[in-house]
């Protein structure tokens, strides 16, 4: 890889194949070289993790981007959100869940020497863009060599576009956010 491409690398934390399709294509259009990081210990079962991973692999291969997979470790999530199990969606449990995934994305970017990171989580209308940006930016306050790209992927019909990409690719489309605590309330 040429030096300019190395410098344009950005680590994109991907929550799933559906949400990450449009962010990958937009980042590519903007001149970035996205490296996708699938890190989702929040998923309630390994079966669900594997279903979403398979969808993610299809999306990455469609756009020709590198995919890094964080092995499934649900205990890490359960320990991190302990005591917040009954919080409503978008509440304190979700803040911690997002913090856990972005912490790991920041650490992975650092480990790989990638200077920027961001997340596909912001494309969902169910997620708070400002809060996610604050969490992402908080890691960079004392680590000036890495920056968080605060880009609202749902702008310009981003959510519709990402859904259309997932339908075109025929990937698995889940009907719940991910953890067991939100699943019971949504069914
Ligand atoms: S509802 Fe979604 S964001 Fe909230 S804790 Fe569960 S998996 Fe994480």
List keywords for this structure.
187 residues; alpha/beta; Rossmann fold; five-stranded parallel β-sheet; 8 helices; 50% helix; globular; binds iron/sulfur cluster
Lateral strand order in the biggest sheet? 3-2-1-4-5
Bound molecules: iron/sulfur cluster
Task: List SSEs in N-to-C order.
Answer: HEHEHEHHEHEHH
CATH architecture call: 3-Layer(aba) Sandwich
Q: Which homologous superfamily in CATH is the superfamily? A: HUPs
First-to-last CA distance:
46 Å
Task: Please compute the radius of gyration using only Cα atoms.
Answer: 16 Å
CATH class (first level) name: Alpha Beta
> How many beta-strand runs?
5
CATH topology: Rossmann fold
Number of helical stretches of at least 4 residues: 8
* Broad structural category: alpha/beta
The general outline is globular
Ranges where pLDDT stays below 50 over 5 or more residues in a row are none
Mean pLDDT: 95
Number of domains: 1
Overview of this protein structure:
It is a single chain. The model has no long low-confidence stretch (mean pLDDT 95). It is globular, with a radius of gyration of 16 Å. The chain has one domain: HUPs (Rossmann fold). Helix 2 packs across helix 7. The chain has a 5-stranded parallel sheet with strand order 3-2-1-4-5, sandwiched between helices. The chain starts with a helix and ends with a helix. Strand 2, helix 3 and strand 3 form a beta-alpha-beta unit. The protein is α/β, with parallel strands linked by helices and 187 residues long. The protein has 8 helices and 5 strands; from the N terminus they run αβαβαβααβαβαα. 50% of the residues lie in helices and 12% in strands. Bound molecules: iron/sulfur cluster. The site of iron/sulfur cluster has 10 residues, from helix 5 and helix 8.
